[in-house]
Design a protein that fits this description.
The chain is an all-alpha fold. The chain contains seven helices and no strands.
Length: 135
Amino acid sequence: VNDAAALTFARTFYTMFLQGHCFGEAVKEARATTQKRHPTVNTWGAYQCYGDPGYCIIEQFNQQESGEIQPFVSVAEYVVSLHNLSEDAKTASGPELKSLRNTLKAITGNLPGEYKKKSAVRAALKKARKKLGLQ
């Protein structure tokens, strides 16, 4: 892997990601910028990045600070979010636990009626409540 191309990729990726662009968008731009700036180097495609393309670190921090949760666009997003809360609750205590309970309240407050009927959502919600000591 060419060092200059690797540096271009890393700088572009982290600059975009830490400015609030989502993971997938930051990776795509970093690859495109690397390919453009280093046209004779083909290792730009070797940078493998795995993860949720829609994950935005800045949005995550803002949500944690404000207690505000943006509405999700799919049942799967709710289920994953509830699962993550359950996992976080395993090691949480005191203020952390209170914050997780507030996050659960915000998530359920944004839960569309049709999603409430889905067994996957109901199961994940039940598990999250139990792990947070709400059942």
